[in-house]
Design a protein that fits this description.
Blueprint lengths: L3 H13 L8 H11 L5 E3 L2 E3 L10 H12 L7 E5 L23 H14 L3 E5 L9 H9 L3 E6 L6 H10 L3 E5 L5 H8 L4 H15 L3 E7 L2 H5 L3 H10 L4 E5 L17 H15 L5 E4 H4 L13 E4 L5 E2 L16 H9 L9 H13 L7 H8 L9 H14 L1
Parallel strand pairs: 3-4, 3-10, 4-5, 5-6, 6-7, 7-8, 8-9
Antiparallel strand pairs: 1-2, 10-11
Helix pairs in contact: 5-6, 14-15
């Protein structure tokens, strides 16, 4: 049962965004059910379900309702963009390990942000590499924040009080600091850098002191942690840090070291993490937000290449950050042209695309970890997606009824 405060926040949201009442009853009921898995909170002034949806009192939420639930535009609602490939850490599971090329300059990044907003993006994640190493990051945040809820994924490296204030003033909504374990030596080993744990804790403290930004942790939880039942212990540690959210994801088979069925999370483990999320969210305290729950078949499914797009630091356009493939570079063709062509191959599905199709990418790459456009298209000839998710079954059914 959804917390009573959720209904109070939703009533206030309806007053701010009255067009919500025009969304089909089936979709509104879907969202009520989904949001019932979380406690809507006022995180640093943001009415937040979790960090991968725009806050309910942010202009981006009104854009999301209008563009994607009412107008039903074809463009993406969510995007991520790499600000640099440079990073002091060396994570074995890093999805950017095999990406190469000339990094985009700031003007190219700003153009990409404009094009993303024109396509309908309402939520933008800034990633890397380590995005804080881009000296123009505050300018980039400001360019997006008028129409997007902007989230920063960071190791915390090089963060200063001045930079934290700049990002807040530029309009940053949320930050997720990478932290994978409660033991410093294990986190440092995972990240390939001594001191990474201390850097993460320092960044969390700096953002909390700065205020005005939802502060969370981005955690890659290993299968070993899941199987040993250690995720709950890790969440207790994170709760003690006083953060707003723990965002959880398992290692993805995005790089050769993880191209093995034994490395991919099982359905039972997926269910275990989803149940843990729901159980923790019935308690007061930080929000637990498991990516696998968001993209499960009963919720939104996998939206890679359909409502999600990733532009890496070199301008290559991919379905999402976890897919080591490109369908074109924004230096050569317009983003709209690349995304439209890519989306024709991605109907959305009920399970994670890379978890399901990594063997095709492994075989097509012939030892190469990143596929060019021709190889990417060969993969799509054989790729599998499964059934539509609960959301898209309702979304497409409603669209057919409107046309009838």
């Amino acid at each position: 049962m959804a917390p009573v405060k959720n209904f109070l926040y939703l009533a206030r949201t309806l007053r701010r965004v009255p067009r919500m009442a025009l969304v089909s009853p089936a979709l509104n009921l879907f969202f009520l059910r989904y949001i019932g898995n979380f406690r809507i909170k006022n995180s640093a002034g943001h009415w937040t379900v979790h960090s991968h949806l725009p806050p309910l009192n942010h202009p981006a939420f009104g854009r999301f309702v209008g563009l994607h639930l009412l107008e039903r535009i074809a463009g993406p609602s969510h995007a991520q963009i790499g600000l640099t490939n440079a990073c002091p850490q060396a994570c074995a599971y890093c999805y950017n390990r095999e990406r190469r090329g000339q990094a985009m300059d700031t003007e190219t990044i700003l153009r990409a942000v404009r094009e993303l907003k024109e396509l309908g993006v309402c939520w933008l994640g800034l990633t890397g590499g380590e995005p804080l190493l881009n000296p123009d990051i505050a300018r980039i945040v400001a360019s997006a924040a008028d129409g997007c809820a902007v989230k920063l994924f960071t190791t915390g490296s090089t963060l200063t009080p001045e930079r934290a204030r700049e990002l807040k003033q530029a309009g940053l909504f949320s930050v997720s600091v990478s932290l994978d374990h409660w033991l410093p030596e294990i986190h440092d080993r995972n990240r390939g850098l001594t001191g990474a744990f201390a850097t993460a804790l320092s960044a969390i403290r700096l953002f909390k002191v700065t205020g005005g930004v939802q502060v969370g942790v981005s955690a890659v939880v290993s299968r070993d942690m899941i199987q040993r039942g250690q995720v709950e212990e890790f969440l207790e540690f994170l709760q003690g840090l006083g953060i707003d959210e723990a965002w959880l994801c398992e290692p993805k088979p995005s790089v050769a070291a993880f191209w093995d069925e034994s490395q991919v999370i099982s359905p039972a483990e997926h269910r275990q993490l989803s149940d843990l999320q729901d159980r923790r969210n019935r308690r007061a305290g930080m929000t637990v937000n498991y990516l696998g729950h968001f993209e499960s078949r009963e919720n939104f499914g996998c939206n890679a290449g359909h409502k999600m797009v990733y532009i890496d630091a070199c301008g290559e356009v991919s379905p999402c950050v976890f897919t080591p493939m490109t369908f074109g570079n924004i230096r050569d063709r317009s983003l709209k042209e690349i995304f439209t062509a890519m989306k024709s191959h991605f109907p959305s599905g009920d399970t994670c695309f890379i978890n399901r199709n990594f063997p095709l990418i492994r075989d097509a790459g012939r030892g190469q970890g990143f596929l060019d456009p021709a190889a990417s298209l060969r993969v799509m000839d054989k790729a599998e997606f499964g059934e539509l998710s609960g959301f898209f079954r309702l979304y497409l059914r409603d669209r057919k009824e409107r046309r009838a």
